[in-house]
Design brief:
The protein has helices at about 1-45, 55-65, 65-70, 85-90, 100-110, 155-165, 180-185, 200-205, 230-235, 235-265; strands spanning about 45-50, 75-80, 95-100, 115-120, 125-130, 145-150, 170-175, 195, 210-215, 225-230. It is an alpha/beta fold and about 270 residues long.
Length: about 270
């Protein structure tokens, strides 16, 4: 009797293990199918590299309010701390578009990446000095360190500031690509000055760090949204971009109240 009980137990154990194995294989198959479908959807979506700056605020609001989805376009915002990360995404063809500035965009073009500029943005930058450094005029930048992102609007603006201020000694341009790190360096007294976009510039001003130059006073409008030319050459992609721009234009107005809040010192958390 025990012999038969042992045999029955063995058969049941084998059957149980077989069923578990089948269940595991089935789960693996489902997981693979889900991954393939997720990859397909991501490939078909309009992916745009962004940074936590004011010119991207309409995009963050539109995504938060699901307006892209309501307009019938799958827009996926790739959020980074620096434009350089967005450049890398664009080069590797893991993004169709980018929020950037004309200086950076033209450099990408020179590197062989064909771009189509679809709209301008309200991006601006301020050269803000560390209050501890006691620099209140451009000419006082002699022998000082200024944080910039190379090959970008910040480098161009730093050059303009130095040329107009005529400091007697060398001004050292320090490469700090991440906009929030540049802000922290000002707040933590780790750099003499930095080119900051909004809302980082507003936060720096709230801590009594003086403004040496504002790009808006130079009548420079350097912000831009660009897409790879191959994207614009594709009929379906071109329709996606068209819907994206309709939402962006509409939500620039919706973003205005929040922009005023930032100007008053409100926290900006895209």
């Amino acid at each position: 009797m025990r012999k038969y009980q042992y045999l029955l137990f063995s058969l049941l154990s084998i059957a149980f293990l077989a069923s578990c194995g089948k269940s595991y294989k089935e789960q693996q198959r489902l997981n693979r199918e889900q991954q393939i479908e997720a990859a397909r959807q991501d490939s078909a979506a309009l992916k745009i590299a962004t940074v936590p700056t004011m010119d991207c605020l309409p995009l963050f609001i539109a995504a938060e309010d699901s307006l892209f989805q309501k307009a019938g376009v799958d827009v996926r915002l790739k959020r980074y701390g620096s434009q350089t990360d967005g450049d890398t995404l664009l080069r590797s063809k893991r993004a169709e578009g980018i929020v950037t500035d004309l200086v950076k965009a033209e450099r990408l073009r020179r590197q062989g990446i064909a771009l189509n500029f679809v709209t301008a943005t309200n991006a601006s930058w301020q050269l803000i000095s560390n209050r501890i450094a006691r620099v209140t005029e451009l000419k006082q930048l002699s022998d000082k360190m200024v944080a910039i992102a190379p090959y970008s609007a910040t480098q161009l603006l730093a050059d303009l500031a130095i040329d107009s201020g005529h400091p007697k000694e060398t001004v050292y341009r320090i490469e700090i690509n991440d906009v929030n790190i540049r802000l922290k360096m000002i707040l933590n007294n780790e750099i003499d000055a930095a080119l900051l976009p909004e809302p980082q510039a507003t936060l720096a001003r709230l801590f009594q760090n003086p403004v040496l130059m504002d790009s808006r006073d130079k009548n420079l409008r350097l912000g831009v949204i660009a897409f790879r030319q191959k994207v614009m050459d594709n009929k379906d992609r071109r329709q996606q971009v068209k819907k994206f721009l309709q939402v962006y234009d509409a939500y620039q107005h919706a973003a205005a109240p929040r922009q005023r809040d930032v100007a008053r010192g409100a926290r900006f958390t895209p």
